[in-house]
Amino acid sequence: MREPTGNFTFLHRICTLVVLLCFVHISVTLLYYVKSWDFKQPSIQTQPGQRKLTFNRESSEEESKPTTNLPHIIPNITDTPEELQQCPDPSPLLVGPLRIEFSAPVSLEHVRSENPALQEGGRFKPKDCIALQKVAIIIPFRKRDEHLKFWLYYLHPILQRQQLDYGVYIINQDGDETFNRAKLLNVGYAEALKEYGYECFVFSDVDLIPMDDRNTYKCFSQPRHLSVSMDKFGFRLPYNQYFGGVSSMSKEQFLKINGFPNNYWGWGGEDDDIFNRLSSKGMSISRPSGAIGKCRMIRHDRDKQNDPNPQRFDRIAHTRETMHKDGINSLSYKVVKVEKDQLFTKITVDLGEAPK
Ligand SMILES: [Mn+2]
Question: The pTM is what?
């Protein structure tokens, strides 16, 4: 009886050991399985939730803070491919040449319904990537509502395809004083910066529409002239120093020239003054090619209260002496009204009186 009993207890022990080993093996496998399942959970949720990119980014950064006492988890979270990347340059959504015409009128209701991704104030940022630049579009304005509708109708889809983080600011001159385009542009710069951390400013006339979406409304290493071949001038630059129509400048470039002149009342000259400011600070003008820089101007008669400024030639001749006293550092105005629409922020301003 001893031998079989001894054999039995030996076999029994071996069996118990094998069962225990199996149990340990299964539990370890289970543990790893549950762990990996836990990590997959948040990444499955973030994929469809990429709509609000900054909120996601900020909250994921905040969420990762309390987990610092579990160092092995952090690389797993930050390495997830769902983290938003910078948008590619150029944007893959661009289509190239566009058909632009002004025969059929458009309504604001229609433009609003065609651009559901816009946020109040004419704000937009891409959902799936981080925009390359934060751009404020500044439009000097007075009584051009028909032109503004066309501008909004054509530009909003273009700017969204360009994957910019942008806002549209209509700077409306109050009252019947002579029009002052450059001062309105200064106001636009100052007011837009109060709202958001814009790093680039596009200054556009309300009646100019680009004919190719590869003409990106952003900033470059040198100040950019965007409206290089206008139908009005036979699709050519009227002269080499021309900087009117649509242009863009980074915050740094704008501040380097003390912004724009405030004392050009009436039509003409302020764009040449801006060119003089840029060249006196050693900057050059960057431009797209003539083909990509084509644009159409909505035909119109000259506005009342915007007669050619007779002082413009004298002013342009003295830009270098006056630019440090007259510009963003001497800007004064009164905001009369701020209106927020889905398509734009409209700021009505009192610029004061032109010296008589
Ligand atoms: Mn015009």
Answer: 0.77
